[in-house]
Write a structure and sequence with these properties.
By secondary structure, the protein is an alpha/beta fold. It is 29% helix and 27% strand. It is built from six helices and 13 strands. It starts with a helix and ends with a strand. The structure holds ribulose-5-phosphate.
């Protein structure tokens, strides 16, 4: 399987993972990105039996609605049963870097609420130590320079993501050359910088299940 086939395989595996547990009142959290898009498209044939979803981005909400799948404001729901989303990197503890698609804050919110976070990724995303992928940080625009200076003090090389405004009206700094052997600590330290909305480390709230696409098929990692 090539990378695209692996993404399709994990999207299909995620559907197979949740389908036996779908009930009339199941609430699905839906992520953002190319792998999540394949999952949304895989859901389309079940549109009439899916009564509630919440999306981690405007783009995913639009895609869901285009298939006739209902999308709700998270504030109108009392829970999310499953959250299905991709990742930019995952380590062995299923701690993740996310936010390549600039949706990290809403992704983190939906993941925080979800009972089960099902991560879908191809094997290129699996690493020993997080940080090969530049860590996205969502920042209030007027704090950009201040936050960048603090990120340099932590040892990274922040780069402003040109031309990107998040769904929340903020900017993204991508932190390059930043190996992250202690993700819990770094997640906290970056979030403590005034002006940071959140960062793309999912260490305190890792995935519960990883469906990993490999050339030989999909591995389920718990
Ligand atoms: C978006 C994300 C995505 O999950 C991540 O970028 C992976 O995307 P893809 O499935 O396209 O490789 O965090 O903010």
């Amino acid at each position: 399987m090539n990378q695209q086939e692996m993404k399709q395989a994990v999207a299909d595996a995620a559907l197979a993972h949740i389908k036996p547990r779908l009930e009339d009142d199941t609430v699905l959290g839906i992520g953002t990105g190319s792998t999540a898009n394949l999952f949304i498209d895989a859901l389309a044939p079940l549109a009439s039996s899916i009564n509630a979803t919440v999306a981690s981005s405007e783009a995913s909400a639009q895609r869901l609605k285009s298939h006739g799948i209902p999308v709700f404001d998270l504030n109108t729901l009392d829970r999310v049963d499953f959250y299905i989303d991709g990742a930019d990197e995952t380590n062995e503890a299923l701690q993740l870097i996310k936010g390549g698609g600039a949706a990290l804050t809403r992704e983190k919110i939906v993941a925080a609420v979800a009972k089960e976070f099902v991560c879908i990724a191809d094997e290129s995303k699996r690493v020993k130590t997080l940080g090969g992928f530049p860590l996205p940080v969502e920042v209030i625009p007027m704090a950009r320079s201040h936050v960048a200076r603090q990120l340099v003090k932590l040892g990274g090389d922040p780069v402003y993501r040109e031309g990107v405004t998040t769904d929340n009206g903020n900017i993204i700094l991508d932190v390059f050359n930043f190996s992250i052997p202690q993700p819990l600590d770094i997640e906290d330290k970056i979030n403590a910088i005034t002006g940071v909305v959140t960062n793309g480390l999912f260490a305190h709230r890792p995935a519960d299940v990883l469906l990993l696409g490999t050339p030989d098929g999909v591995e389920t990692i718990l």
